[in-house]
Design a protein that fits this description.
heterodimer, A: 306 residues, mainly alpha, two-stranded antiparallel ribbon, 3% strand, globular, B: alpha/beta, Rossmann fold, eight-stranded mixed β-sheet, 12 helices, 42% helix
Chain lengths: 306, 376
């Protein structure tokens, strides 16, 4: 277990964490401000990736593709907010889950109908491809470093938005007490649409960024959605800061657990069994983390309300 | 009332007329993750049926959504209410385990175009179950044999943590003579392999064997290429079929993978298949498409000899495998799984197209180790 390997895994955990944050930030805003459980958030991630892959194939430009992912996911977000989600704010959580689950199926089969069943080609731009040598002899893919940078920048941007702008104050107020800010004359329906579009755009952006190093295919958002919910629960519903800390914690736990737990088990088991037990336990690690956090703080690390 | 009687009489007539036809039930994965494989099998199968111009073969196609419970429901429906004679189509081994034993026990013939779990090749084999593709271990064993030929001595091996993943690593280790630099099971459906690639980099291996079908393979190959690790990769064809290569692009170039089929296997049947598939569907066939095509042609060749109602004659005709395969000569072993050549292929670029080219025959007339346990 060399220090180089540990540094590389720390970077991997950080990179995974900031991408999870992009997903979880939207989810926690929508959950916190509107009280809505949006299972279709993973579909917006997929919409962003598909839009980016299609635009990259048509124009050859990675940055146009990123812009397209933001626009397409935000547009999809506005459309589903206005036509479907708006009817669900007063409904029970079970109805919301049913309706947004239906949206997952509609988006999945819609994407298959438009793009076919085979994964799309979408790659990182040449200027960001390949590895670079970091101080200390760590070789690390440049694109993943860029992802860390972009994720941190978006995090700062969101902090500024929520802490320093008028709409941010409204969003935070909405997360704390919806009835009160409606009574104070804030156009709540417009605020909801804006927040939903913002969350959708972030999810789509994450989908496009991650899609370039993964496979752009139908259903790609579903596993990320589960992780993002874990992050939201750990961080506390409605809290951007909680989503950020939670995402980094989950990212590091997942990446470091995957490699260190099998090593720990090798100390007292034979290697083959240690690998299997270790990797089985590593896939549970983030849920164990979630359990521990909830026992310690039932409303999450920075939850506004239980 | 009279109308109703006439109608039911007509239906009865149609029913008896159809009884001499052969009904084929195809349950395969057409939606959700992994739908590309089922679509290729279906398209290859239907291409052969259309080309043969056989109106006496009726094919009923259903989508299992890659879910065992749905596959079981569909097979019950096909056997009990549609009364199919032959079933085919299943892609995934866990679904095959749920459907095949129950179907063959009810007297239906099952021709597998893809899944070949070891449990159905050995003690659990059945006289009505034929596998036209391969026993699951075959391509992994070939990868191990190829690693020996390439004089690799220290392999890092990885596969998803599910039964076929364990079979894959077992298959590789069965024929590989060298040592292991590391062995990891990843999560099924995992999309980020940064942690595993870091371990590979630190392991001091001289080769990497991986079995990551579908989207998992796409993610791994792209990330591996970007990581700057240059240890040679070896894998079974499942991460290098035409559908995947289109999404991976140049990142896969030069990787050696093992397959029982490739589009450049030199025989007239294969050349005609590749040309007509490309023309009909506007894309190159994958190994799955070739398996679907071969399955249909095997079926047609057996129906020419006997109707499935005459089970013994039909079974003998299937066993004879008297059809032109895209793989050249085709023969079944004693457990009704193929005995065939497995090739090493290399990913190359032909013009703008990333595709495979055969390097050499890795295993000649290769059967499987489970045949000895099959006594039925």
């Amino acid at each position: 277990m060399s220090p180089i390997l540990i540094i590389e895994q720390l970077l991997n955990g950080l990179q995974f964490g900031v991408m999870l944050f992009l997903m979880a930030a939207g989810l926690t805003l929508i959950f916190g401000v509107m009280g809505l459980i949006n299972l279709a958030h993973g579909s917006l991630y997929m919409v962003g990736a598909f839009a980016a892959a299609a635009v990259a194939a048509a124009t050859g430009s990675f940055f146009l593709a990123l812009a397209a992912s933001l626009a397409a996911a935000a547009a999809a977000g506005v459309v589903i907010e206005v036509f479907v989600i708006r009817r669900l704010y007063r409904a029970a959580h079970l109805d919301q889950v049913l309706a947004t689950f239906a949206l997952i199926l509609i988006f999945a089969e819609g994407a298959r109908w438009v793009f076919g069943s085979f994964p799309l080609y979408f790659d990182v731009p040449p200027m960001l491809s390949g590895p670079i040598m970091l101080p200390g002899g760590v070789q690390y893919p440049l694109y993943r470093l860029a992802l860390i940078g972009v994720g941190l920048a978006v995090g700062c941007g969101l902090w500024w938005l929520t802490a320093r702008t008028r709409i941010g104050i409204q969003i935070r107020a909405g997360a704390n007490d919806r009835e009160m800010i409606a009574a104070l004359g804030v156009d709540i329906s417009r605020l909801y649409t804006v927040v939903f579009a913002l969350g959708a755009a972030l999810a789509g952006f994450a989908g496009a960024l991650v899609g370039a190093i993964q496979s752009v295919e139908v259903g790609m958002g579903d596993p990320v959605l589960i992780m993002a919910f874990v992050v939201v629960v750990i961080g506390g519903i409605g809290s951007i800061k909680g989503a950020f800390i939670g995402a980094i914690l989950v990212g590091l736990t997942d990446r470091l657990g995957g490699i260190f737990l099998p090593e720990v088990f090798k100390l007292f088991m034979e290697p083959g069994a240690a690998t299997q037990t270790g990797s089985a336990l590593a896939s549970m690690a983030i849920y164990i983390l979630m359990g521990v956090v909830l026992v310690w703080r039932p409303s999450g690390l920075f939850g506004a309300r239980a | 009332m009279i109308k109703k009687l006439l109608l039911s009489a007509a239906i009865a007539l149609v029913g008896t007329a159809a009884a001499s036809d052969v009904k084929v039930g195809m349950i395969t994965t057409l939606s959700g993750g992994g739908a590309g494989l089922g679509i290729d099998v279906r398209d290859g199968f239907m291409l052969a049926i259309t080309q043969a111009g056989r109106s006496d073969i009726e094919v009923i196609i259903e989508d299992d959504q890659r879910k065992p419970d749905i596959a079981v429901q569909l097979s019950d429906k096909m056997i009990q209410s549609e009364r199919v004679d032959v079933m085919t189509g299943i892609i995934w081994s866990n679904l095959a385990m749920a459907v095949v034993p129950a179907s063959t026990a009810q007297g239906v013939f099952y021709l597998s175009p893809n899944a070949g779990p070891s449990a159905l090749a050995g003690r659990g084999c059945h006289e009505n179950y034929f596998n036209v593709a391969w026993q699951n271990d075959a391509l992994h064993e070939a990868a191990g044999a190829y690693a020996n030929q390439a004089s690799f001595e220290k392999s890092f091996i990885l596969a998803p943590n599910y039964p076929a993943g364990k079979d894959a690593l077992t298959g590789y280790k069965r024929l590989f003579d060298g040592d292991l630099a590391g062995e990891i099971y990843t999560k099924l459906g995992q999309t980020d392999y940064a942690a595993e690639i870091a371990q590979i980099r630190a392991s001091g291996a001289d080769s990497v064997f991986f079995f990551l079908p579908g989207g998992m393979g796409i993610s791994f190959l792209k990330q591996y290429a970007a990581s700057g690790v240059d240890i040679p990769l070896v894998g079974p064809a499942f991460s290098f079929d035409q559908g995947i290569l289109g999404a991976v692009g140049d990142a896969a170039l030069g990787v050696v993978n093992t397959s029982q089929w490739n589009k450049d296997i030199d025989n007239p049947t294969n050349a005609a298949f590749v040309a007509s598939f490309t023309e009909t569907y506007g894309r190159l066939p994958s190994l799955y498409a070739s398996q679907g095509f071969d399955t249909a042609n095997l079926l047609i060749s057996a129906i020419d000899v006997a109707h499935p109602d005459d089970a013994d004659a039909f079974r003998a005709a299937l066993m004879a495998a008297d059809f032109d395969s895209t793989r050249g000569d085709f023969a079944f072993g004693s457990n009704r799984h193929p005995v065939q050549n497995i090739y090493a292929r290399e990913v190359v670029k032909e013009g703008d197209l990333v595709t495979n080219r055969i390097l050499s025959v890795t295993l000649e007339n290769h059967g499987d180790v489970y045949a000895a346990d099959c006594t039925r």
